[in-house]
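Q: I'm writing up a methods section and want to include an example of the input and output format. Could you take the sequence below and give the corresponding predicted structure tokens, formatted cleanly so I can copy it straight into the document?
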Amino acid sequence: MTIGAVLAQLQPDFPDVTISKIRFLEAEGLVTPSRTGSGYRTFSVEDLERLRYILTAQRDRFWPLKVIRDALDALDRGLQPAGPPEAPSRPTVPPADVDPALPTAGDLTRASSLRLTAAEVREAAGLDETTFTELTTFGLLRPDPAGHYGEPALAVARAAGALAAYGVEPRHLRPFRTAADREIGLVQQVTSPMRGRGTAGRGAAGEDPTPQLLALCIALHASLVRAGLDHG
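A: Here is the clean output for your methods example:
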């Protein structure tokens, strides 16, 4: 949009706005329209919405330019916009999203009714016998005392089978087994004194905190992977 088109979009809501005002906000670095080869300003839809935010903050919140500049910087960094005018506030950090891909404490404690034989696991996961044997050898698949495998083991087998398509062999997956055992060991170390004190240190209903702590460890692991990708 040209600056004239932007002005036409803004004036119904902001009758006092002028081209000079828009140029002033540009000079202050609050909005940065593009320029054509001949030097004419061109505004995007995002520029228009940014101007609406600035003008609203001035009219309804009486924010000075410095406060608006800080608020825009916060928005550019992913923070949430301020609340309604009757409850003035600055942009805030968004609340944590619940990742449906991460298990909850309830998921970790839910009993599995599935009891599969080794052959059934291989077939369901699409694994050949050699790969299955290696997964067992490296401790990634562990049968119960009756020699059966539950839902978690099947999930491990399927994940290993999917990774195999990318050239990841069972021997490459040993660090995952080690990391999981260390996380479980850490949680057991934390909860052992709690168990010694009975219900003291447990939840409101005296429940075992182990599943919740393990769910937090898994969430931490996933967050560390995401953070590593962000900085990769």
